[in-house]
Design a protein that fits this description.
Layout: H1 2-14, H2 17-35, H3 41-65, H4 67-70, H5 88-109, H6 112-130, H7 140-148, H8 150-160, H9 165-188, H10 190-195, H11 201-204, H12 207-227, H13 236-259, H14 262-289
Helix pairs in contact: 2-3, 2-8, 2-14, 3-5, 3-6, 5-6, 6-7, 6-8, 7-9, 8-9, 9-12, 9-14, 12-13, 13-14
């Protein structure tokens, strides 16, 4: 019984549940904004299921591809594949099944626009980022961030069957949020990335430039979030929340830029996760109240 439970937990961990939940929050928030209120419950359930399958499948395939790198890094060495608890071939099959099921769920119970967008995001993350960009350029996180920015566009398409310019605003917010979030982690794990020969920004361009870029990208993110209300996508509740959350983000980024300690990098990484989740939850509250 214990062995079966551990095996189940290992397969769940292949799906990177924390990241999956964050992506689902952005998907759900976009649905509320697109629906101008509360979307149909059945549509929400199927969209969330499809999103969980898509994100989980892409994460499992990513871990299959990165299994050699994961062995070299303390942060990832205990993952199921490098630790030997799940054979690589099983992880590959698992990831492919989840990815295919996500397209089936979206096509059958949501719409083809959402299905094709989810598939595009999966292929971009697995094929373009994991197999190519991650090991080729220090801009890997910048370009690869497009994959993580797809979920709100999928959520919007699930409600409307199309992609509106407002959905592209949400895409842009996550696209520009991704680099400062992951570069803060890269500062903490720079020695492991060096050992693994992964060209993350702190390894190639240095820590000082990385901290400066974190601050600059944070400025862009905050500016983008504040444009949603003037563009009549969100209301005043969201604007107030975005302003407050953005000020705190810039404080963390500014302190990291000037200080540069691991403690400050960890605080930036941790808060940036909360920041994105709270920002998109503010959109939900804003639309529900309005």
């Amino acid at each position: 019984m214990m062995a079966m439970r551990q095996r189940l937990l290992d397969y769940v961990s292949l799906m990177k549940p924390i990241i999956t939940v964050l992506l689902l929050i952005t998907t759900l928030s976009a649905m509320f904004v697109a629906a101008h209120g509360v979307p149909p419950a059945a549509l929400v359930r199927w969209t969330m299921l499809g999103g969980a399958l898509a994100a989980g499948g892409a994460s499992a395939l990513n871990q299959y591809i990165d299994r050699d790198l994961d062995k070299q890094m303390a942060r990832t060495a205990k993952r199921p594949i490098p630790a030997g608890r799940i054979p690589p071939s099983h992880a590959l099959i698992f990831g492919l099944i989840l990815s295919v099921l996500s397209v089936v769920v979206y096509a059958a119970f949501v719409n083809w626009a959402a299905a094709l967008l989810a598939l595009a995001g999966n292929l971009y993350y697995v094929g373009f980022y994991s197999l190519g960009l991650k090991r080729a350029t220090p801009q890997n996180i910048v370009i690869g961030g497009a994959a993580g920015a797809i979920p709100p566009v999928v959520g919007w398409a699930a409600v409307t069957g199309s992609v509106h310019v407002a959905a592209l605003f949400l895409f842009a917010i996550i696209f520009y949020w991704t680099p400062p979030h992951f570069w803060a982690l890269a500062l903490l794990k720079r020695h492991e990335y060096t050992r693994g020969q992964i060209p993350m920004m702190p390894v190639v361009w240095g820590e000082e430039e990385t901290r400066r870029q974190i601050f600059l990208y944070s400025l862009i993110v905050v500016a983008l979030t504040l444009l949603l209300t003037p563009a009549q996508v969100t209301g005043m509740f969201y604007l107030g929340a975005a302003a407050l959350l953005g000020i705190i983000l810039l404080i963390h980024a500014g302190v990291l830029w000037r200080g540069g300690t691991n403690k400050q990098a960890w605080r930036m990484y941790k808060y940036s996760s909360y920041y994105l989740a709270l920002l998109f939850l503010a959109m939900v509250i804003d639309r529900t109240v309005r």
